[in-house]
Transporter (Taeniopygia guttata), 554 residues
Amino acid sequence: SHFTTSAPKTEPESPPMSGTHGPESCRIYRAGRMAEQPCLGPPASPAPPNPHSHPRDKWSKKMDFLLSVIGFAVDLGNVWRFPYICYQNGGGAFLIPYTLMAVFGGVPLFYMELALGQFHRTGAIPIWKRICPIFKGIGFAICIIGLYVSFYYNTIIAWALYYFCSSFSGTLPWASCDNPWNTPDCTNYFGKSNVTWSNFSRSPAEEFYTRKVLEIQKSGGLDDIGGIRWQLLLCLFLIFTIVYFSLWKGVKTSGKVWVDAAAQIFFSLGPGFGVLLALASYNHFHNNCYRDALVASAVNCLTSFLSGFVIFTVLGYMAEMRDVEVEDVARDKGPSLLFITYPEAIANMVGSTFFAIVFFLMMITLGLDSTVGGDSPAVSPAGTRLGTCPMADSGVTPPLLLLLQGGAYVVKLLEEFGAGCSILAVVLLETIAVSWFYGIQRFSHDVKAMLGFTPGLFWKLCWVAISPALLAVSIHGQITDKPPLTLFEHQYPEWSTSVGFLIGASSFICIPLYMVYKLVWTPGSLKQRLAVCIRPEKLLRAPQAEGVGMTPVL
């Protein structure tokens, strides 16, 4: 765990700003009318709440926060998604667009979210009243997307736990074709000569995954999803219990190539999920979040590169043994790589039992790191132990559908549509809200108040123009280039795509709905309503040091 059990350190939730500009006029909305009054300082930043009513815990050590951020960013996708996409888009040549997307898109937005969370010291939903109230729907969309991701992500961790428990045997159950679940198509080519691999051949690892773990042969697809796998239900319950107690005490315990490159770096680093906002909100005000962003991003990218080297070595060896192409070895780009390809390679290593235990323990810890962090935005607003339980209950009931014999089909559907375009659109609107409405000057001044220096021209250009443009291109590519869904050579029905788009829209729709709600219920003329809805609800004017002499305008 990256969290500590030491006594919490508390301080006011949102500090004032430092530095002054010349006198200027401030429009303040008060008691249903617009008032104009002089104020001092730069574009006003949100005022803090009463420092005595809502104290906020702090990370006990800097390393706790940094490891938590890295633990969220480095997840199972680094192990399976990056190597596959890299191979699919030209291997080493893919690293060029990937690096450029990271430099001009992923890292600047990673830095922006850490700075926002650290300065405003609140969660993904309440933070918007301090930035641009009309965009508060982004916070709700983030929580819904987080739930969708947790549905299938916890299921994948449950699969890994099943493998982990199955590894405690003298002979790994996926090492041979002599098991009750194997079929005549099972072909074990390791250590044998004169074995011909055909299109109908299946490795012992593949049949263990599909016919033993999932029992997918008893399902006819989304139309006939089958019965529940009680062993996986037990594994999910254990994972759910671990996640609950990790969150219980909060912070104290615990071209298409370019489109693919952009999607991979945004999904991997995780801006837009609200996790970085939540984790950074527990930092000390003057923590160097700029350095944290660079370190965490570098570790994330290096981990992806290392995973790529390892997986290409394994896939190349297996393709040579089968006398087939690499893409025929890894036919599915999803979790199958974790539960078929890797186990098959491990089963033929010396000391296979030991390495299987270590590998799946790594999978479980990687998954738990990300899923605990991913639940932070939903728990942070509650801020209490009692607030954790309802969130956890809502995250464990729907996944029961994913534990049926055809649950892998639902996992694939959620993986493709649960986040996908929705999270890219959320990040795009978040960037626009901060850079264009909250104001790049105001945001830069916030960063200066924390770190002592203003972000350079490169970061400002990325926040205002380059990153939004990259996100818009990525969204267009995701929508217009959506191949038919297939899993284990099963073609999804046509209606499944419509269901997938509805899943994606169900989170994003929160944003325009809240905009309409905010405009309708705000008093005044339309011009006054717009003026109120796009400005922070509370403003500061007297820049001081942290925790000293805060003077709110209202």
Q: What stands out?
A: The CA atoms of residues 433 and 439 lie 8 Å apart. Residues 1-42, 47-53, 378-395, 540-554 have pLDDT under 50 and may be disordered. The two ends are 42 Å apart (CA to CA). The beta strands are 24-30, 33-39, 486-487, 490-491.
